[in-house]
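3.2 Worked example (two chains)
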Amino acid sequence: MDAGVGKDVLGNDVLSNDVDAGTSWREEIGAQLKVKREGRGLTVEDIAERLKLRSSFVAAVEQGRGSEHMDEAYEWSHIKAIAGMLDIELKARG
């Protein structure tokens, strides 16, 4: 089977075999947010402070871990806020 070009959750072109089939949406988004944040010279604490979030939550997002104490829709709204701060437009999940 030929590798095709698809889109990741951030709308970036990716080869279909670039994303591990076992990778969750949280892991995929988290990794890309971390790359963008680091590319801008920002720390986890910078993001947390500007968005009034806990730095542990921002770190968990980057590590692909969800919040066990937060509704998924509420968590997604925070993830979108982090992405927005980094000028990333997220595609709707599902």
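3.2.1 Second chain
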Amino acid sequence: MIDFQAVIDTLVNWGANGVLNASGWTVLAVTLVMTHLTICSVTIFLHRAQAHRAVDLHAIPSHFFRFWLWLTTGMVTKEFVAVHRKHHAKCETPEDPHSPQTRGLKALLLTGVELYRAEAKIPETLAKYGHNTPNDWIERNLYTRFSWQGVALMMIINLTLFGAIGLTVWAVQMAWIPVMATGIINGIGHYYGYRNFEAPDASTNVSPWGVLIGGEELHNNHHTYPTSAKFSVKPFEFDIGWMYIRGMEMVGLAKARKTPPQLILGELKDVADARTLEAIIANLDSAHVLRPNSSTLGSPFTSLHHTPTSFRSAVRW
């Protein structure tokens, strides 16, 4: 005979504690690990590997990152890449999909996700900036076609593992990228912080230690060297995303294509040697832009003319 009371008690216990019956500290630790995996997936796969082609990833980490992003964000690779590339191409102009300089910091902090989604729906943006992204069977028939079902599956997994508190874990996961990446990096990262370089935009480094947001905190460095796989440039700066890339390089799962240039000072010479002369000759072709144009004597540097963009001054440390 079935003991219905025992069945009810089991279901109630499962609903309250999940199959793991984990303590609060364990749930917190697992939540932090999962959100960190999501940040790493965004910065390493979506941002550095796909949007900027700064690093080549082996199929194993690539497919893991794609699957994890489907579960925890629902973001489509092509849409993210297109919107982000347009951000760099049109940075701090009215065409920038998410600049706090043109849309206001409050808009980025509160409605950054809506700005991203609106731009991702524009076919011209996807066609112009979303090229060379995954287009295999699983991308077309699962990750893109059923983009929201991944996060729904994640909710079911959390509820199964942790019980009722799993819904809170899921809510934190869903808010992590909108708050950390969209709000802090796209918003504060163009408004407040310190600058190592006078990049032609308002980008700032939010913190010299890029841990919580995977190294994305070093946003001014990134905008100065956007195709670099490494975001830290100063001795006191730390990019945890670069640490993971180096770890994958050591086991053959990744290969960085570019890193920030290193200043190498050579010996001072009184007389130019052959290598110096070769370098001068090799760069003579670009020197013409500095010569006055005889056909436009009234404005000899017309070819260099541009209209400077006015930025709201970033609050410096």
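3.3 Remarks
Residues 286-310 have pLDDT under 50 and may be disordered.
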